[in-house]
Amino acid sequence: MGNREDLLAGARKVILERGVAKATARDIAAAAGVSLAAIGYHFGSKDRLVTEALTEALGTGMGDAMDELIAAGAGTSPLAGLTSLWNGMPEVFANNHEAMLASLENIVRIVRSDDARSQLGDRLSEAFADLGAHVHAAHPELDAAQAAAIGRMYFVIAQGLGILWLLDPGEAAIDGDQLALAVRALTGK
Question: Are 53 and 15 in contact, with CB atoms under 8 Å apart?
Fold first, then answer.
């Protein structure tokens, strides 16, 4: 790995052990085995490094798991795919508990920083497009606009349910069967 990748790995390690608020640039550089100046050189600031490290960690952990669940729904109706995805999400949340906590902590920092917000905005567009592409691959009967809209909806639901799951990990606020029931009721089917 190069210094940039070492810094991302070091930041994830320190953040998951100590939390975002207690992660110092010095701790991250030490965990990465690089100089403190490398943070500025590769990321411009510790805050940009933290945002990127957490975005990649959750994108890899939760994103890959969601992509697998979406793909598992291929060959079924889009509504059956929705049901299957959301019935599988509590396990995804459990497997990414610490990263989700760190991400939630990071959201407060991002909301208070125009630079961090713009950095995250770029990543959100990528996440939406990626989920939409996976939905379209699993359900080619959908047109691109429908798949993109479902991908965005999945992202929004994951964020909301993820926060509720963190508040009460033993309780799913809503499962896939309840979501499907709600969608059928909304569409009159």
Answer: yes
Given a contact cutoff of 8 angstroms between Cβ atoms, the answer to whether 15 and 22 are in contact is no
126-149 pLDDT, tens per residue?
Answer: 889 999 999 999 999 999 999 999
pTM above 0.85, yes or no: no
Q: At what angle do helices 176-187 and 78-95 cross, to 10 degrees?
A: 150
CA–CA dist 123, 127 (Å, integer): 6
Query: If you search the block for the tokens 């990990």, which residue do you land on?
Result: 169
Give the Cα separation of 103 and 107 in Å (integer).
Answer: 6
Read off the pLDDT of residues 153-175 as tens digits, 9 standing for 90 and up: 999 999 899 999 989 887 777 88
Residue with tokens 């049901």: 83
Residue 61 has which token pair?
């952990």
Angstrom CA distances, 139 to 67, 103, 165, stand at: 13, 30, 28
Q: How does the average pLDDT of the chain come out, rounded?
A: 88
